[in-house]
Structures are given as C-alpha cells and as structure tokens.
Amino acid sequence: MKKFLLVIALFVTISISAQTTFDIDWEVGVSGAPASPTVEIGDTVRWTWTDGLPHSVTSDPGSQQAFDSGIITGMGTQFSFTFTELGTNDYGCDVHANMVGTVTVQDILSVEEKFVKSLTFYPNPASDQLHIFSLLKIDSYKVHNLAGQLVMQNVDEGNFSTLEVSALQPGIYFVQVNSGDLSHTTKVVIQ
C-alpha cells in the first residue's frame, strides 16, 4: 500500500509541475508582451523565425542566464533554451534593435498559472481592435457584455488573435480565452 501511495504522490507531483515549452514567433517588430513569458524553472522557450531575415536571440548583460543563438537566417528556423535559474532574463536580436523581450523565471507554477501569466490583452481600453496574445495556443475566445449576452466568438488555432471591436457599443466586456482544458476570463473596456 505504501508503494502504491508513493507512486500516486509522484505522479501527482509530476503532473502539477509539468514542464512547458513556450513558443515565440520571432520576426521584425516583435517585442514586449509577445516576447516576454513568465515561466518556471525547467521550462523551455522556443523562438521560431517567421520571416526570412537574419535574427539572433541573445541575452543582455546582467540577465540571470546567458544564452545566444548566434545570427540565423531562414523562415521556420528555431532556437530553444531551457531556463534553470530563478530571475529575469532580458534579451534581444543583435540585428534588429526593436526585437526585445524578457523571460521571467519563477518558482513552481501550475499549468493554469502559466496560461494566465502568458495571456495579454491590448490595448485595453480598445476602440477598433483588441489583440489577444498567449504563449500557449489559443483554441477559441468568447466575448460577453455585462448582461452576460454572447456578442462575439471565434475558433482559433494560434498564439495571436485580433478582434474587430469597433462595432461593439462602448462599455465593459468579458473576454474568455480557451486553450485545451484551460480557460481564463478578463475584463476589457471598449471605447
């Protein structure tokens, strides 16, 4: 019985702290939230070149960990790095100064915490478009007004969604984003 309980406890521990790979589309103009995940020790960040230009992924001096892809060219090329130390890691592209981000490494996070911390809604307030970015794939989203009525929804299959919100009445809305079994709702303001 002790062995059985030990195996169950080990399985639960592994499931709770499952390591995750975060994907970042790496191209000219990517910076800020789309390039700045919060991860836990042992998680991997994978940058994928989504244009044909030369880029690098290079840690800045003072980052907790040093990493450098070197300058690489080719759409679909990838560079991955597994983070093993707590701290902040600012980085950028040696070729394009406007391509920057920060990888923040924290203590153990649940998969749900990773999803919520990697989810960004901008601008908020929005008037014409609302962008949703997640480092975990977005399966779908729904927008509800304050009365709970569904006013917009879509099935998605990427990390980035743009919602055309100009036709919505000004006010407060709730946007629910789904990724696999994960779901998070946040309040946004439409002007």
TrEMBL record:
Signal peptide: 1-18
Molecular functions per Gene Ontology: copper ion binding; electron transfer activity
Ranges of residues in domain Secretion system C-terminal sorting: 122-190
Alphabetical UniProt keywords: Copper, Metal-binding, Signal
Keyword Membrane: no
PANTHER family in alphabetical order: BLL1555 PROTEIN
Protein name: Uncharacterized protein
Species: Pukyongia salina
Record lineage: Bacteria, Pseudomonadati, Bacteroidota, Flavobacteriia, Flavobacteriales
